[in-house]
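TA notes, week 10

Several of you asked for a full example with nothing omitted. So below is the full record: structure tokens for the whole chain, then the designed sequence directly under it. When grading your own attempts, check the secondary structure regions first.
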């Protein structure tokens, strides 16, 4: 046992040193963030839309796409996942435009997969929109999205404030493209007609009811009516609408961090400006293009494009792991990370969230380097906990402003969404455009749990009435949303392991005793999900209800979440926790990271997934260090919100 303890100490010390070794000069951390084939494919498509190709980069992207292709010719939404039709269409299309021979084996197998799934006409709305921009399908292949939507009053059933921030920033420039019926320059003149079973012009029905509900049927009728009426819309009204859409996205261009700081919105803004005739040297267009270039990861032999970057998230999680591993605010590396975080707090911009909360003062943090219109509640809670745990009074004002903003962002249900309060207009998921099911940002358990953890950590003695009232509402929300098997759904991470870890941390921070039935059911769930090798793993396919419980393999990040969840529930001495730590001790490592190929992050369930390269660096170190600390302590209770 003594040797095991010493070995564990050495592991923690070494892993801490390796993590500190990748810290940037100004104190922050940022790891790669990888999605699926669609983002690098869309990068190639953007170059062909603009007639601004980078042939060397296209070749490297094609090398990346070939490497991540499934054996059956498809491209998945996450590593080793099943093939996705729309991702495969875009990957094939991008490679053809880049000069790949369509009779090459990897292209022929991709084409066979696409045709076997009904062809390109069966692609999702966003893919069909791209096809329409290139003239591959008629504009009737996409739902009617009149730019006049920008002029609708807030009380109307559709308003930009009623959809999620990511939808807002993607849709505003997209409405301009739709209103102009923009057309790609497409310098090669190549098409992908070979991917259609029926000639696109002869296809009768493209748009469908995404939910199958009566509301969805009504929206399909409305879509047909709008398609008939749209040509009669006054030209002056259209110009006014385009002007408003352009004003919306230009105000939020966000410098080199880009519109919404996410690739799809950035790309749409660039295409919209090009379609409107912005000069190539217009500073706004130049900086919007640069924001896209900043997402490119060049590994020499291949290139991929990130959907966004995650420095605030990475730095705050790294800070937690380092503090668990023994760093305090006197440590210069930790201090520089915390100071960098404190400097990034959004204090002067009332973003889109203020439509629902006009009297709340700003005080949050974004996910990316800069995204002042869209601070993130989840990041704010995690940063706030890190600053508070450090115990440096210099951060008191930042923490107080964060508490004020987080409480102000709570929805009436008691939960929190990521970027907006009260973003629960669920009928909008039935519009034909919303076939991705990710139009809204309603409260979720994982974000709510993080907010409870933050507020409870800041006020452990339960002296602040506003904090305690907020926690009380949120606790009722968390309890009410526990699954029958004891787990909680994980919106932003894979999946029930992530959600259950998050909830258990919150319940512990709020003072719920370990023998509470709610906690005990969750403990039983986590123990029951442990794999024979001692680790935990959960496939992203579990976002489909009929595939709950599936796993490809144990992963270090999910194992760390499970063990930290058990520890938060008073299970430090459980054999399952010990076996989980043993798994982490024995798992291979690569530099600052434990080796982890599988994706464990979620952008949008069932649609878009993420590989956070930092997760395999922060969470295993955090879990092993915490286990070591609690095993040595007289009090086995986790004393922090996370």
């Amino acid at each position: 046992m003594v040797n095991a303890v010493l070995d564990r100490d050495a592991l923690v010390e070494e892993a801490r040193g390796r993590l500190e070794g990748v810290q940037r000069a100004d104190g922050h951390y940022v790891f790669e963030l990888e999605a699926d084939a669609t983002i690098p494919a869309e990068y190639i498509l953007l170059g062909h839309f603009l007639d601004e190709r980078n042939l060397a980069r296209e070749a490297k992207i094609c090398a990346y796409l070939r490497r991540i292709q499934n054996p059956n010719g498809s491209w998945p939404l996450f590593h080793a996942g099943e093939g996705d039709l729309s991702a495969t269409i875009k990957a094939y299309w991008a490679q053809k435009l880049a000069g790949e021979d369509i009779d090459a084996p990897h292209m022929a197998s991709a084409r066979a997969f696409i045709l076997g799934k009904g062809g390109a006409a069966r692609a999702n709305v966003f893919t069909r929109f791209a096809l329409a921009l290139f003239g591959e399908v008629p504009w009737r292949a996409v739902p009617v999205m009149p730019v006049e939507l920008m002029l609708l009053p807030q009380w109307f059933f559709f308003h930009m404030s009623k959809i999620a921030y990511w939808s807002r920033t993607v849709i505003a420039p997209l409405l301009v493209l739709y209103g102009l019926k923009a057309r790609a320059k497409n310098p090669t003149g190549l098409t992908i007609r070979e991917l259609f079973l029926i000639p696109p012009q002869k296809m009768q029905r493209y748009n469908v009811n995404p939910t199958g509900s009566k509301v969805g049927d009504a929206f399909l009728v409305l879509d047909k009516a709008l398609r008939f009426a749209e040509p009669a819309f006054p030209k002056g009204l259209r110009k006014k609408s385009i002007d408003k859409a352009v004003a919306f996205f230009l105000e939020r261009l966000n410098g080199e961090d880009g519109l919404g700081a996410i690739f799809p919105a950035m790309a749409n803004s660039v295409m919209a400006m090009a379609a409107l005739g912005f000069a190539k040297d217009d500073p706004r267009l130049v900086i919007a293009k640069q924001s896209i270039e900043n997402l490119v990861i060049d590994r020499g032999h291949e290139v991929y494009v990130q959907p966004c970057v995650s420095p605030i998230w990475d730095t705050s999680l790294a800070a937690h792991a380092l503090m668990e591993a023994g760093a305090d605010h006197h440590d210069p590396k930790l201090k520089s990370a915390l100071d960098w975080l404190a400097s990034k707090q959004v204090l002067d911009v009332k973003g889109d969230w203020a439509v629902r909360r006009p009297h709340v003062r700003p005080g949050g943090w974004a996910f990316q380097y800069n995204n002042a219109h869209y601070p993130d509640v989840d990041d704010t809670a995690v940063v706030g906990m890190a600053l508070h745990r450090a115990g440096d009074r210099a951060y008191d004002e930042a923490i107080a402003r964060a508490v004020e903003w987080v409480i102000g962002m709570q929805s009436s249900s008691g939960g929190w969404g990521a970027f907006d309060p009260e973003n629960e207009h669920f009928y909008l998921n039935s519009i034909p455009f919303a076939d991705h099911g990710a139009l809204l940002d309603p409260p979720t358990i994982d974000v709510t749990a993080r907010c409870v953890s933050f507020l409870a950590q800041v006020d452990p003695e339960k002296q602040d009435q506003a904090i305690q009232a907020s926690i009380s509402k949120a606790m009722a929300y968390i309890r009410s949303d526990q699954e029958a098997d004891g787990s909680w759904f994980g919106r932003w991470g894979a999946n029930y392991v992530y959600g259950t870890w998050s909830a258990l941390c919150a319940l512990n921070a709020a003072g719920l005793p370990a023998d509470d039935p709610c906690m005990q059911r969750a403990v039983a769930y986590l123990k029951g999900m442990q794999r024979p090798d001692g680790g935990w793993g959960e496939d992203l396919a579990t976002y489909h209800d009929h595939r709950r419980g599936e796993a490809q393999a144990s992963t270090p990040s999910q194992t760390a979440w499970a063990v930290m969840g058990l520890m938060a529930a008073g299970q430090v001495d459980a054999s399952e926790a010990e076996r989980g730590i043993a798994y982490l001790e024995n798992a291979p490592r690569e530099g600052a990271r434990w080796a982890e190929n599988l994706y464990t992050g979620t952008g949008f369930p069932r649609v878009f997934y993420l590989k956070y390269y930092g997760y395999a660096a922060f969470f295993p170190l955090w879990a092993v260090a915490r286990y070591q600390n609690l095993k040595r302590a007289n009090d086995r209770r986790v004393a922090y919100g996370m």
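The chain has two domains: 2-31+310-632, 33-204+235-305. Use that as a sanity check on your answer.
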